[in-house]
Amino acid sequence: MKSLYLNFAVKSLLNRARQYRSLFAVSAIGMCIMVSVLMITDGMLNSMTEKMRQYYGGDFVIRGGELVWDEDYSAHTIEKSQKMIEALKEILPENVQISTRYTRSYGDKSFFFEGVGVKQLTLQGVDFAGENALFQRFTFVEGNAEARADGDGVVISLPVARKLGVHVGDEVLLFYEQGSMKNTIVLVVTGIFQDSSVFGKYTSYIEHTALLKVLSIRMDEIDKICVYYPNGSPSDGEIRRVQNELEKRFDMFPLSYDRKDWKNYERGDDEIIYALIPLSANISELQTLSSALHAIVALIVAMLVIIISVGISSTFRVIVMKRAVESGTFRALGMKPSGLMLLYFTEVFVLLASGCAIGFALSLVVTKIVSGFNLSFISGFDLFLMGGRLAPSFCGGKMIFLTAIIFVTTLGAVLFTLRKLIHISPVGALSTVT
After folding, report:
1. How far apart are CA 278 and CA 234, in angstroms?
2. What phi and psi, each to the nearest 5 degrees, are found at residue 372?
3. Residues 6+ apart with CB under 8 A from 307
4. Cβ–Cβ under 8 Å, residues 30 and 304
5. Which of 24, 41, 96, 323 has a CA positioned 20 to 30 A from the CA of residue 240?
6. How many CB atoms lie within 10 A of CB 248?
């Protein structure tokens, strides 16, 4: 019986293709726009998150330890980092990358090459070998992030490389000045990555020992241990698990998703305490931007769902009213109102399913075309790009949820519309036919 309704629905749609053309277009175009917007937005946010993971060294960092004082600066340094690293190795899955970094974001930092100088915002002292998995995610236009035997490698952004006029293999002079201390060091460019965002344009990655040498501080100093999950960002539950395990072994600061809580914490000079800082805590300022993008997408989806459901239900009502003779004939032949409802309901379901399928296929074409354009020329937009291009992301769960919303709202509206139109008596039907 169900196959009979389905066959009739398909034949009815084919025979009345001109009548249903507008409804098919509404569902296909609406689905195409929704999926395209969702995939592009998710891709933009994923690109932003990936850049932040690269900049901060992973998905969360361990900070704290002892407080080191110098005539020009003070900084929290991980004390006995090997104990913390060994603990993390026991707690975390085997494929998780654990590395150490030292970051310098203050002071005068400039690269020089053949008389041209470019200031830097941040210098990241990294272990290239230890962070191999993370640096594989960078978009290199030249070279790579392989460690040099002399420990003097540096990876810079493409905008900085262009201003300096350097390529992989060239030697650049790093000048650093902070207070009364001035120092220089010669570094070899091993890689140039494409990024002009706030996290990449004026950020350079230097071999950890080379950075400490130019800063004239002890060679074993670090200011954070970075943890990176190569297979995807950890869930909040995973981060809480790690926090709980570390609390059993170390004096830990309460887990917070706002870096300011740790930054504003005042502790004694002799107090040794550690803090697990999730990635989202480091970029709390960008959460507003992420929320705004999600709000815009939600508004677009809601408007399109309303257009699809109202448009199809109202137009289908007119179509059913024009098919009063056909409805009367079915009732005169003994079909119950529920059967008539199921018949029209199947038509709408097939129409909606075929329209959504075509719309989804079109969205894949649209996002493929959009991702082919290099948009790095847009100032500040590189934060949302990978390799200068949009990288749409497909999320099966969101697509299923979105499709379910469209089907439920549209079919619900159709049922509400048809519930009175199908109650025609056989006598009235026969009189209508004759």
Report:
1. 10
2. -85, -10
3. 26, 30
4. yes
5. 41
6. 9
Pairing of strands 181-193, 153-157: parallel
Tokens 């709390």 belong to residue: 284
Q: Which residue has the higher pLDDT, 199 or 288?
A: 199
- Cβ neighbors of 377 (< 8 A, separation 6 or more) are none
Q: What is the rounded CA–CA span in Å between residue 428 and residue 434?
A: 10
Q: Determine the straight-line distance between the first and last CA of the chain, rounded to whole angstroms.
A: 29
| Region of residue 151 (left: phi > 0; alpha: psi -120 to 50; beta: else) | left
d(C-alpha 373, C-alpha 366), whole Å: 12
Tens-digit pLDDT profile for residues 185-214: 999 999 999 887 878 889 999 999 999 999
Q: Say which range, 24-28, 218-222, 230-234, 427-431, has the weakest mean pLDDT.
A: 427-431
How many angstroms from the chain centroid is the CA of residue 430? Answer: 61
Nearest to 9 by CA among 374, 356, 344: 344
- DSSP state, residue 76: E
Residue 279 near residue 60, CB atoms below 8 Å: yes
* pTM recorded for the entire structure: 0.78
DSSP sequence for 29-47:
HHHHHHHHHHHHHHHHHHH
Q: Are 240 and 91 in contact (CB under 8 A)?
A: no
